[in-house]
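[Discussion] Sanity-checking designs against the backbone

I'm trying to build intuition for which residues belong where. Below is a structure token string of 527 positions. I'd appreciate it if someone posts a full sequence so I can compare it with mine line by line.
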């Protein structure tokens, strides 16, 4: 297998030649479908449209678009000519979007009229930017759909190389400016070939994808994984708790991915008679559920739930086995490509000096595999921090490994709460709080202590119709956590600040002004 020549164009064209009449893209917005042959032709037109606009191999083009068939067609048309997508989070405001356009040195921006106000003035701010296009006709902007409709159906002769960029995915930027993760054609193809094996997918299986296309999960796992299975990606505009199961049933999806609060929201809906009336066999997501929660979800919905670890910097990482042992609360073991001739995924736990630590000891998780980012765009210093000379990726996550090589997540290094000399995993406390029957969501952060280090603050969203008080939450935690892990402060909020991928934005929580906050120590001293 030659990684140097591995590219999306060849990957998809091989699939289209094999199953031309099979659906590849199903859009839940109107239940329309495109076959492999139709999608191949549509992306050829898009590739020619981009070429006519002057886009060349290696160029970056920014998209600020919601999920849609047009997004996929326009992006993968870019991929066919070796140009690179820069997908902008649709929740961004002007300064955030403009930063990504400038940092990536984007040649064009493709958007919809809904986001033109956010992008107002962006052309004047960046000399490299040629034009802001819209999908359909809009005053003052070229319509990409019209350019595509007039383009040739035969793909340009340009063939990307394996190391060419297919997507520039920006990190969240919680510790500074966002960094552009350079993902390559070979990485995405390797992922598309591997994902069906990881998920136990059969030929022609369908993947339900409701996560945004600016996220690596949808780009690499769903979009490419469907090709690897010669199946379909069932694309939804966004995650909707009310539409999720009806759409999954209607389109006979066999698998889906989840992140953030998706699984918790689905699990906390009232049980229904048709909970097991679907075709899903397996769901993959992070973070890992507690063992009890996973067993309850699997029993209720009649499917297998596997957890793992991946990140924008590498589409490989860790995963539980569908057929082998799954240990409670574990992220599993290193996941590999089904071709045994490719380099295996390696994982280590190291201390702050980079030394391997014994099993059972907390430290930073390091990964090395065949599907690693090229680095951070135009940022050699940050690249050197993340990728050491031996090719190890420093994840910035604390974890531990047991005696048998199973890995367990602790927390982001920056989300560890240091309280009176003890390290506390915010994730561990969140899990306990969220197991309370009256709690929908919880987020735990460290706040300054008047003594030293930090105190534990839990933000809590109650379930509709439930009204647990702060004392009840504290008592619940006291039954399940060591005394030093029990939150000192409890603050109830109506909703959590979230990214469009449903991840809670702890950086925003840290900047919130204190509201009505329960103080356990003050209550105890006056009680």
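Best answer:
Here's mine. Compare freely.
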């Amino acid at each position: 297998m030659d990684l140097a020549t591995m590219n999306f164009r060849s990957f998809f064209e091989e699939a289209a030649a094999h199953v031309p009449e099979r659906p590849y893209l199903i859009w839940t917005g109107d239940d329309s479908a495109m076959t492999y042959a139709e999608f191949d032709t549509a992306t050829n037109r898009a590739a020619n449209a981009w070429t006519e606009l002057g886009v060349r191999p290696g160029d970056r083009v920014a998209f600020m678009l919601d999920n849609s068939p047009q997004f996929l067609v326009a992006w993968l048309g870019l991929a066919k000519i070796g140009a690179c997508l820069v997908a902008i989070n649709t929740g961004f405001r002007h300064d955030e979007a403009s930063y990504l356009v400038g940092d990536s040195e984007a040649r064009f921006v493709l958007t919809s009229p809904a986001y033109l106000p956010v992008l107002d003035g962006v052309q004047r701010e960046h000399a490299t930017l040629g034009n802001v296009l819209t999908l359909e006709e809009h005053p003052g902007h070229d319509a990409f759909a019209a350019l595509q409709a007039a383009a040739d159906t035969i793909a340009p002769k340009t063939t990307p190389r394996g190391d060419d960029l297919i997507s520039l995915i920006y990190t969240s930027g919680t510790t500074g400016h966002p960094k552009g993760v350079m993902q390559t054609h070979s990485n995405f193809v390797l992922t598309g070939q591997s994902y069906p094996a990881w998920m136990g997918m059969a030929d022609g299986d369908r993947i339900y994808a409701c996560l945004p296309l600016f996220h690596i999960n949808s780009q690499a796992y769903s979009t490419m994984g469907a090709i690897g299975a010669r199946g379909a990606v069932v694309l939804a505009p966004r995650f909707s708790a009310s539409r999720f199961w009806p759409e999954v049933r209607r389109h006979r999806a066999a698998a889906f991915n989840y992140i953030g609060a998706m699984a918790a929201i689905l699990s906390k809906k009232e049980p229904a008679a048709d909970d097991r009336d679907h075709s899903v066999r397996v769901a993959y997501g992070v973070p890992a559920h507690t063992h009890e929660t996973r067993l309850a979800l699997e029993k209720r919905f009649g499917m297998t739930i596997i957890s793992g670890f991946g990140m924008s910097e590498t589409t490989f990482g860790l995963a539980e086995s569908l057929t082998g042992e799954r240990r409670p609360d574990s992220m599993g073991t290193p996941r590999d490509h089904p071709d045994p001739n490719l380099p295996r995924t390696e994982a280590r736990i190291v201390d702050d000096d980079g030394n391997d630590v014994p099993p059972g000891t907390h430290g930073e998780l390091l990964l090395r595999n065949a599907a690693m980012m090229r680095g951070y765009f135009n940022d050699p210093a940050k690249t050197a921090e993340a990728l050491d000379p031996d090719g190890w990726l420093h994840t910035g996550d604390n974890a531990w490994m047991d005696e048998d090589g199973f890995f367990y997540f602790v927390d982001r290094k920056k989300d560890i709460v240091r309280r009176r000399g003890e390290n506390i995993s915010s994730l561990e406390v969140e899990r306990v709080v969220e197991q309370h029957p009256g709690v929908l969501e919880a987020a735990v952060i460290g706040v300054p202590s008047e003594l030293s280090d930090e105190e534990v603050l839990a933000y809590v969203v109650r379930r509709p119709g439930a009204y647990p008080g702060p004392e009840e939450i504290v008592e619940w935690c006291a039954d399940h956590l060591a005394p030093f892990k029990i939150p000192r402060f409890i603050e109830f909020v109506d909703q959590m600040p979230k990214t469009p991928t449903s991840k809670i934005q702890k950086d925003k929580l840290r900047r919130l002004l204190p509201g009505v906050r329960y103080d356990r120590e003050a209550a105890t001293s006056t009680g």
